[in-house]
Write a structure and sequence with these properties.
This protein is α+β, with helices and mostly antiparallel strands. Helix content is 26%, strand content 39%. It is globular, with a radius of gyration of 12 Å.
Length: 72
């Protein structure tokens, strides 16, 4: 079984406080035109769920990066 992985997911626009609250399980940082989520997720199912939350809020994903792969 693989261990948790850390992801960075960016979406277009600056997140409002209401949107930030939707991602209280992530570290959220915002710039003028982008919001970045950092999340440590246990598996790909959790990643899929996080991506689906972003899509459900009609946010445009601009970047997804695997920060820390599992240790062998």
């Amino acid at each position: 079984m693989l261990g948790p992985r850390t992801y960075e997911i960016s979406f277009a626009g600056r997140a409002s406080p209401a949107v930030r609250a939707e991602f209280d399980d992530c570290q959220v940082t915002s710039g003028p035109n982008v919001t970045i989520l950092h999340a440590e997720l246990p598996d790909q199912c959790a990643l899929s769920g996080l991506i689906q939350r972003i899509i459900d809020l009609r946010l445009e994903i601009t970047h997804l990066l695997l920060i820390s792969p599992p240790t062998p």
